[in-house]
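Issue 218. Parser rejects a valid record. Input:
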Amino acid sequence: MDHKLLERYFRGACTPEENERVAQWLKQQDEALPEAPADIKNKESLKDELWQNLNTRISHEQKRKPFFKPQLFKSISIAALVLLSLSTAYLFLRERSNEKTALSWNQVKTEPGKQLTISLPDGSTVQLNGGSILEYPSQFSKTSREIRMIRGEGYFSISSDINRPFKVNTPGKSNVQVLGTQFNIKLKPVSQQLDITLIHGKIAFGTPDKYQLMKPGEQLLYDTGNQKISSIKLTDTELIKAWKDGILWFKDVPVLEVFAELEQYYGVKFTGTDKIEQQTFNGKFNKKSLSEILKLMAYSTDLKFKINGTSITVYK
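Output the parser choked on:
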């Protein structure tokens, strides 16, 4: 696959035929995508390139016609100035258009203990867990679809559209490139680790260094601090998406991460956690009350809990 074609695809600059070609390639191969595309050239570099191209053309013209007429040179110079002015105007208008588009973004926040399903402009849906923040535009462009996952956890069901790639920008200068699929994104508040789990379809996870293609059933762990992928492994997708149905499912989860999830799910706050030793917890709870979960935790660990409204103190 041509790397330049992939760069255009992820920028939303492909023709319908090229979009179809890339989509078919992604469906057929399982190798990692190439390094992230370079930034689009700025206005000054485009000006330089225009002048260089014009100078080259004038030079070739002079070689073919030794007796170059001053009137012809004047015409070419005028044409060059017109072309440069048009290109500058185009870039200015494009920048102004991008600024207007940036102002039309919506931000959705879910309170701890609450869940919310959002319908995006293209018909795709995102189910947000408690304590999450998502940003999306009022309308998608004709060439791409882009949203931002700021905090928390969300389950994404994305409508297929080969002419408009879907991108979720995530913390740590990372992103998820989508064709049409279902996946889960979770930012762990304690470790600041980003967990990306692919349920169906195919996605590419982008970092400052590369794109990593994922298969259904795989979970990618990304450290938002050092901006590196720590691991890619097969996982139990039923466990990952259980929260959507009101099920809390912990499997060898550090207790500090358990407390963070309980805070997110029930809208409470744990204190005294800095004094406990690290240990893991296992349990599956189908719409159980918080007091029932804490009783089981106290039974299976050496921890005790004191509840005072929405504040819970942890001690031994």
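Fixed in the parser; the record now loads. The chain has three domains: 43-102, 105-239, 246-315.
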